[in-house]
From TrEMBL:
Pfam families: ADH_N (PF08240), ADH_zinc_N (PF00107). It comes from the Bacteria. InterPro entries: ADH-like_C (IPR013149), ADH-like_N (IPR013154), ER (IPR020843), GroES-like_sf (IPR011032), NAD(P)-bd_dom_sf (IPR036291), Quin_OxRdtase/zeta-crystal_CS (IPR002364), YIM1/Zinc_Alcohol_DH_Fams (IPR050700). The keyword Oxidoreductase applies. It comes from Cytobacillus stercorigallinarum. This is NADP-dependent oxidoreductase. Coiled coil: none annotated. PANTHER family: ALCOHOL DEHYDROGENASE RELATED (PTHR11695), RETICULON-4-INTERACTING PROTEIN 1, MITOCHONDRIAL (PTHR11695:SF294).
Length: 314
């Protein structure tokens, strides 16, 4: 089977193709033939420089390293102790052992779940990471309630677009920052108010925000403190918030990552099946070395409006 690995940190040119045997599975694992995966920010960050220095050395990538986290695919083999899956099941999930591979082996008890076989697995390859991160921000930690005011920065991106939909499903009034070109798409997702950050300073036109979801960081995050209610919450996927400013403004501010619980994934799948969540596909790339390299270049150059998907069948 084909794999795309990285040999060291650096540009997309550190990626290379290898051929290996299909993984053997243990009694508690399932073997999945990959259908789709997606490019996430963490993939390009790890490729360029690895995980932050605060992460223990033992958890840093070892070379050659297999990138990729979310996936969709079809179960082709099950271990003798597996009870939740059968050969032929369509599944999605997240793994931290890499997805740029034609086959992957994952534990039955890991972050993987069945989806109806009539769903298109291509967009589902980009559902796991962004939806789980948005879920944790909006539902898990954010605990959004009806009529609360939610501000989502970067609403047209992967996490932002999911956060808009989850917040609207919870009954919130949703404001998002984006460019004018994405206005129709964001309205379709349910955004109540769209602020074009290229022409308007959002901190001058909104106030009394209960929850901020920050996918941008930098000066955008700094300005967000000014529009929040006292005792409001801010969750950022872009950078660790300044705790001194959080105390100064009387708000909670945290860096956030994915909610890796199977029950969360089942809830997300239910919403997707009921058409209460959609995945916007920005572009589909073939599972080739050139395809992966191009997807990384495109992701870094942006804009990333929706998901960049790797198709193993293309």
């Amino acid at each position: 089977m084909k794999k795309i690995l990285m040999r060291e940190y650096g540009s997309e040119d550190v990626l290379f193709e290898a051929n290996e045997n299909i993984p053997s599975i243990t009694a508690n694992q399932i073997l999945i033939r990959m259908v789709a995966a997606s490019i996430n920010n963490i993939d390009t960050v790890i490729r360029k420089q690895g995980l932050p220095a605060s992460v223990p050395t033992g958890l840093q990538p070892k070379f050659p390293h297999l990138l990729g986290q979310d996936f969709s695919g079809i179960v082709t083999q099950i271990g003798e102790n597996v009870t939740e899956f059968q050969v032929g099941d369509h599944v999605i999930g997240i793994t931290f052992t890499g997805t740029y591979s034609e086959y992957i082996a994952v534990d039955e008890a890991s972050y993987v779940a069945k989806v109806p076989n009539d769903l298109d697995l291509i967009p589902l390859g980009g559902l796991g990471v962004v939806s789980s991160t948005a879920w944790r921000s909006v539902i898990g930690h954010g605990q959004v309630k009806p009529n609360q005011r939610v501000l989502i920065h970067g609403g047209a991106g992967g996490v932002g677009s999911m956060a808009i939909q989850l917040a609207k499903n919870a009954g919130a009034y949703v404001i998002t920052t984006a460019t004018e070109s994405n206005k129709d798409f964001l309205k379709e997702l349910g955004a109540d108010e769209i602020i074009d950050y290229t022409t308007v300073n959002f901190e001058e036109v909104i106030h009394d925000i209960d929850l901020v979801i920050d996918t941008v960081g930098g000066i955008t995050q700094d300005k967000s403190y000014r529009v929040m209610k006292s005792s409001g919450k801010m969750f950022s996927t872009a950078q660790v918030p300044d705790q001194k400013k959080a105390v100064e403004y009387g708000v909670e501010a945290q860096y956030i990552s994915s909610d890796i619980r199977t029950e969360t994934l089942h809830s997300i799948i239910n919403l997707y099946t009921e058409k209460k969540l959609i995945v916007r596909v920005n572009k589909i790339y073939p599972f080739t070395l050139d395809g992966i390299k191009t997807s990384h270049k495109d992701f870094e150059n942006g804009p990333n409006n929706g998901k960049r998907i790797i198709s193993f069948n293309k």
